[in-house]
Amino acid sequence: MDNPFLVEVLRGELVESRHRGSVSVIDADGATVLSIGDVERHVFPRSAVKALQALPLVESGIADKYGLTDDEIALACASHSGEPAHAAAAASMLAKAGRDVACLECGTHWPMGDAAARALAAKGKSPSALHNNCSGKHAGFICLACGVNEDPAGYVKAGHKVQQTVRAALEDITGSSHTDEEQGIDGCSIPTYAIPLPALAFGFARFGTGAGLSRACQEAARRIRQAVAKHPFMVAGTDRFDTKLMELLGERAFVKVGAEGVYCATFPELGYGVALKADDGSTRAAEAMMAGLVLHFLSLRDEERAAVEALAQPVIKNWNGIEVGRYRVAPDLLQ
Amino acid sequence: MDNPFLVEVLRGELVESRHRGSVSVIDADGATVLSIGDVERHVFPRSAVKALQALPLVESGIADKYGLTDDEIALACASHSGEPAHAAAAASMLAKAGRDVACLECGTHWPMGDAAARALAAKGKSPSALHNNCSGKHAGFICLACGVNEDPAGYVKAGHKVQQTVRAALEDITGSSHTDEEQGIDGCSIPTYAIPLPALAFGFARFGTGAGLSRACQEAARRIRQAVAKHPFMVAGTDRFDTKLMELLGERAFVKVGAEGVYCATFPELGYGVALKADDGSTRAAEAMMAGLVLHFLSLRDEERAAVEALAQPVIKNWNGIEVGRYRVAPDLLQ
After folding, report:
1. Residues B267, B208: contact at Cβ < 8 Å?
2. Domain of residue B173, CATH code
3. Containing domain of residue A75, as a range?
4. How far apart are alpha carbons A191 and A165 in whole angstroms?
5. Is the pTM of this model over 0.90?
6. CB-CB neighbors (< 8 A) of B1 in chain A
7. In total, how many domains does chain A have?
8. Does the CA dihedral A192-A279-B323-A50 come out positive or negative?
């Protein structure tokens, strides 16, 4: 099945590039609200499920045991830009578990945010694993291990208790088995399991509503959503899509990017979960698709609508600030 | 017409993302050697035609008048990474025409190369227009204007003599009219004209062989190809695809990336020109496609083949250096 064109990138009035994709929107009963393209194809959710991966940390009471703050819980769900506040919060989480940066097994890279990388270089510094965009999630994993007196060493491996716990939490909320055959290794070295978009969307419908979850898991999901809504900077960073959208809409839309063009979201007031993928792995396309769905589903005030429209169908300016093109989202998503 | 999948990106053994595209390979007589996908769709060549845009500078004798060196001629064809040698050569070209950075109308951005951007920041400096990846092309345009005592001011505009000269050179070598209706504005503010891939490929077949060109244009094409083959660093930069491929193959393959997934090339020994586009605008896909075509068409020694194979179907490693996936190029391109 050929997925349809969902985002076009225009230069002048000509279509220069085109992105195909698939979209699944599911309600908390598991019913299909919207389905576009081949949604049965299994997709690695990558970082789009970090909030679900953080559920055991909160549900277990370990987040409270260590006194994790809301901005730290938001960081546990983040693909952050490696700005100073992100690195500091990751260090604080580790310190609360009696650990430090040496425990992180995510690897080191320069801050994902170009300006943050240059700012670090301008100070004559090099990055540490705290700057890895996944450091908050990994600090959460280390808290999860230490909270039950488990040695965190090797916590990224599929056989470690941390990953077994996280895998079970993902299977529970998505209702989809996570098989060894469909296991890949993520950029930060933890396992990632390919499942269909509707299962991911169903998981996010439940994350957004609590439907069908234990009381403790409901509370954990609510706490995570509220923490991110209060600290949208911590989940991404300066000028990032997720931060801008959640600064605008607060708890009305929880959205999270994953690598290779995956996006997940929940719109709690509607009881919907969303999962989508750009076939080609493009983040620009996935962002435009997600913003289109926000326009499609949520009632927005005029100024909110204008701000989300600018995320869905941005004008493209060149290095001299001249308008040279724009994005166009497929009507199926937008209207 | 749906373009076929030409590059797949695997995580573990599962296909995570897929890129469609179209390819045209044309010989110097204009005959089709290879055609994949919808090649009649008009494509903005963007920076992939910089070498053709540099023809008037050399053909007119102005490059010699100003004593431009081979590395400067290579820079005139470059989408460079903004490393110190690139910025210095652009400044030198401008000085030879009695001008300086203030004349550049390409706009300013941080070096395209992340390491170069951080190195600049580490020195406490900000970028100038010399760091714009197009600064060499623009310095060449300014030389072209000054060489005939034309005021370079406004040289980026379609109505300026520089752009009229460049447009005529592109129309001549590609045999394809460049219409106002299919004019877009490029990232560096000059016009870019959408034409079909076979016309682009034909232009590069002639650029590689001189067939059907005036003696002066033949000489200019040869000089540009040799200059780039001698200075492949100047046309791109550290760890860049074009630099690596031409360091390996010298004059046997002239290749040049453009924005939004466009690539052009010529293999002079075969008399072929190549033009391709990844539908979604992805550079990673366009690079893999081009490397696949090099493997397809050129006879290579074992070590050369292994090096090009690593560009076509690279292994993907994560931040810990663990192998997590790989690229797979469609057999149509590769074999």
Report:
1. yes
2. 3.40.710
3. 5-333
4. 12
5. yes
6. none
7. 1
8. negative
